[in-house]
Specification:
mainly alpha, about 0% strand
């Protein structure tokens, strides 16, 4: 399916640039979550607890208690 209006050099340059493209960070993380679902759940649960404790500490500091 080669078009005669496009030179071979341009096609080769585009092919080499396409091979250099990497996945976005989102897709890398999504693949890790799919590969390790239990570890992902544990990590997200721990992160939720840390955020909750941090929020409580900040609320106590702001309220003056």
């Amino acid at each position: 399916m080669r078009n005669e209006k496009i030179s071979s050099e341009i096609l080769e340059a585009v092919k080499s640039e396409l091979t250099k493209i990497t996945k976005n960070r989102f897709y890398v993380i999504a693949d890790l979550i799919k590969q390790y679902p239990i570890a992902s759940l544990i990590l997200s649960s721990l992160w939720a607890v840390v955020l909750g404790v941090t929020g409580s500490l900040i609320a106590n500091a702001v309220s003056g208690a």
